[in-house]
Amino acid sequence: MLRQVNYRIMEQLKQSYPTVAWLWEARPSSEEISKGCTKRIKLYHCDPFNFGEVTLSATGKLEIALVQMVPLAEAELQPHNDEDLEEQDILDRSDVKQWYTQKGIALLSALIDELNVQGHKRLTIKENGDVFVTASGKQQPVDTIPDFPPRPAWEDLCVLAREDDIAAEVCNQELTVSWA
Q: Which residues of the chain have pLDDT under 50?
């Protein structure tokens, strides 16, 4: 029964987020599924959402509410609009598309091709442009991307990458890029 629920959840999520992945925070039991319940799932590649509330009714109805949860301390630090950004950060955001189309897509594609052949499925990029893969539980340096866009432009960079079927998301102080 749980497998069927899993398929239905994935089917609904993929309609809006084709690269989505998810995990149960606590799997529902067969009894909970039969009676109806609400359970939380952790979402990946579903920016800006990082959690979902899955409600199963006793009649078989399935509803998913997407949620973005951040610690309150972090929420206070995030700018609410461009007026809160410094002038240099605003310019960097508008320049990220130009950087991506002129250099970024070629650099990322070459890195992904090389690392994929080597058996890796994910890389992380630091603010200074240093590229790492995780091997044996440790980050290993791979390359450096020159002129990598600054942190305030990363969300825009993720959107551009997703348009080229590259899964990218901001995780803490890193940009994570993954592929299948």
A: 82, 91-92
Euclidean distance between CA atoms 115 and 126, whole angstroms = 17
Q: In the structure encoding, which two tokens stand for residue 34, read together?
A: 């039969």
Q: What is the rounded distance in angstroms from the CA atom of residue 35 to the CA atom of residue 57? A: 7
What pLDDT score was predicted for residue 176?
Answer: 92
d(CA 102, CA 179): 22
- pTM for this predicted structure: 0.49
Dist. CA 119–CA 8, nearest whole Å = 30
| Strands of the sheet with 51-57, listed across from one edge | 21-24, 36-44, 51-57, 62-67
| CA dihedral sign of residues 163, 169, 174, 176 | negative
